[in-house]
Amino acid sequence: MEVADKSFTVENILKAQHQLKDVVIHTPLQKNEYLSEKYGANIYLKREDLQSVRSFKLRGAYYKIKKVEDEARARGVVCASAGNHAQGVAYSCAHLKIKGTIFMPLTTPKQKVDQVRMFGRDYVEIVLTGDTFDDSANAAMDYCLEHEMIFIHPFDDYDIIAGQGTLGVEILNDIEEPLDFVFGGIGGGGLMSGVAAYIKNISPHTKVIGVEPEGAPSMKAAFENGGPVTLEKIDKFCDGTAVQSVGQKTYEICRKYLDDIITIPEGKVSTTILDLYNKHAIIAEPSGALPVSAFDFFADQLKGKTAVAIITGGNNDISRMQEIKEKSLLYEGLLYYFIVNFPQRAGALRQFLTVVLGPNDDIIRFEYTKKNNKEEGPALVGIEVSKPEDYEGLIDRMRVNGFEFKEVNKDSTLFGLLI
User: 233: Cβ–Cβ under 8 A, 6 or more apart, which residues?
Assistant: First the structure.
């Protein structure tokens, strides 16, 4: 039977839907009036951040473990995850009373590690290892083989794909008008291979768009290469979708059914996280905000149409909010860092504050780069402006008033070292 055969995908997803209906929450499909007005469209948000483990990952994890329940009870299960799959597996293990060992990268936010412990209770053991999902996955596979346990793959498994595909069933059951677009995030590809397979078979006219972070475009790279490839380096900011290589199964299904893939800068994702929180009281993790971030890039196509964005998860550590705000300001052109050499004259700093800074500019960081003789040394200065157009005036005033400076934003090496 072919990977993406219609009877296979739809039948298996519907079987998963029947199995999961009493376990997972049928999450709301909410029309968002603000976004609908902004884009001149009917915009709906599929709220998987309100799922039992605050992400869609419970669907695939529970369905897979339930299908191998008897064997898993005897041998135990192993998984690797950057956070959300781990929570789904932990919840499933505790619910089914099955022992599990969960491998997570050392870079996983503490909030997600704590959630795994909470959901798994006494049924799971957590092993933190490696810097990326792929590192922890390799360690998990070795452990699984050594102890003859069952590996629960986070995405490249037909049962996992079928479980995630139940999201597509709910979307089409709940939408009251013809659906033109569905936007969903891609890490390993499990979610969008399942959702796309179901939706394109039931509603062929609907365009299904995969959304990836610009710093980890693994499915886009697979499309361009004709198969999965391993990215040498990825940005781990969108930790739920920061995967170096997609699966073979997920690639084949996405290749057949996705209409497009778009990559989104991490700074834009940060802006979306803040907007969702400030305007809609929605707490979205970076990967959960990815699909909503794509709307701006499809604004012309969305006019008069109906679109759904899947908010895949809400496991966002509040301690990351300062980082998220900074990334947003940098992306929006509202935050600039400089190394400023203050003239060796009395009152130079006061002059900088009163003459160089605009009326709406704000210094958010100031550090002398030398511990001794501070008054005559350069300083790292972070300045937030109220609108991007204020930048040119700031630069002009520094030059006119004799302040030598270097723009840190334009030097990636310096920016990495200092910021």
Answer: none
Q: Any idea which residue has 């699984």 for tokens?
A: 144
| Burial (Cβ within 10 Å: 0-12, 13-18, ≥19) of residue 194 | buried
Q: Look at strands 335-341 and 378-384 and give their pairing.
A: antiparallel
DSSP label at 73? H
The amino acid at 403 = F
For residues 85 and 116, give the distance between their C-alpha atoms in angstroms, rounded to a whole number.
9
- Among 287, 192, 282, smallest CA distance to 236 is for 287
**H helices of 356-410, where?**
390-400
- Structure letter (DSSP) for residue 241: G
pLDDT tens track for 134-154: 788 899 999 999 999 999 999
Residue 122 makes CB contacts below 8 A (sequence gap 6+) with none
DSSP run (H or E) holding 168:
helix 158-174
- 311-324 per-residue burial string, b: 16 or more CB within 10 A, e: under 16: bbbbbbbeebeeeb
pLDDT averaged over the chain? 93
| 292 contacts 271 by C-beta, under 8 angstroms | no
Q: Whole-prediction pTM value? A: 0.90
Encoded tokens for 179: 């659906």
CA distance linking residue 97 with residue 110, whole number of Å: 25
DSSP sequence for 173-226: HH--S---EEEEE-SSSHHHHHHHHHHHHH-TTSEEEEEEETT--HHHHHHHHT
Dist. CA 245–CA 230, nearest whole Å: 5
> How far is Cα of residue 246 from the mean position of the Cα atoms in its chain?
15
- Which residue shows structure tokens 């704000």? 362
For the chain, list residues with pLDDT below 50: 1-7
| Cβ–Cβ < 8 Å for 96, 152 | no
Query: Going by C-beta distance under 8 Å and a sequence separation of 6 or more, which residues neighbour residue 69?
Result: 96, 98
Residues 6+ apart with CB under 8 A from 378: 339, 340, 341, 342, 368, 369, 370
**Dihedral sign, Cα of residue 303, residue 306, residue 310, residue 316:** positive
